[in-house]
Amino acid sequence: LFMGLTSASHHKFYVSVKLLNYVPEKKPIEITSRIFIDDMDLALEKRFGKKVYLGTSKEIKDSKELLQKYFQEKFAIKVNEQEKEIRFLGKEVENDVLICYFTIKNIEKISSLEIKDNALMELYDQQHIFHTHVLGKKQSLLLTSGKIRGQLNY
């Protein structure tokens, strides 16, 4: 599912992959995002005016807070036409990929998801691929610089 996203130190395509999973018995939407770490470092430096050094021994102390602020500005989800709070849980690094974890709590039912994601689009012609698994139904959505919002119905 994500094998094509890892690369050598310089890549020429700009893509992130996000997995959204909803299990009605548990009630949250769980989101896992995979994005190239060098792109995220550059975006955070441009937005907040300081080098963050994600995933290195020089990573700054407030990197989690900066990531959270950045994603709050760039990433939003409406469930059944109502904007929901996306909580940033944490991150880890795998080779040259930053893996971020998010949750949306207390979702009773889902009939539609509207997703907005314009992360990194201030830097590149970025693409975001969303794979969703909701109520046993798998759907995918592609967001680009020309289409930063999309909707899925269940």
Q: In sequence order, what are the helices and strands, one letter per element? A: EEHHEEEEEEEE
The total beta strand count reads: 10
Q: What is the tally of helical segments?
A: 2
Structural class: alpha+beta
The end-to-end span amounts to 22 Å
Helix and strand topology:
Elements: E1 15-22, E2 29-36, H1 37-48, H2 63-74, E3 75-79, E4 82-84, E5 87-94, E6 97-104, E7 112-117, E8 127-134, E9 137-144, E10 149-153
Parallel strand pairs: 1-8
Antiparallel strand pairs: 1-2, 2-6, 3-4, 3-7, 5-6, 7-10, 8-9
Brief overview:
It is built from 2 helices and 10 strands; from the N terminus they run E-E-H-H-E-E-E-E-E-E-E-E.
Note the main attributes of this structure.
alpha+beta, 154 residues, 10 strands, six-stranded mixed sheet, four-stranded antiparallel sheet, 16% helix, 44% strand, 2 helices, disordered N terminus, globular
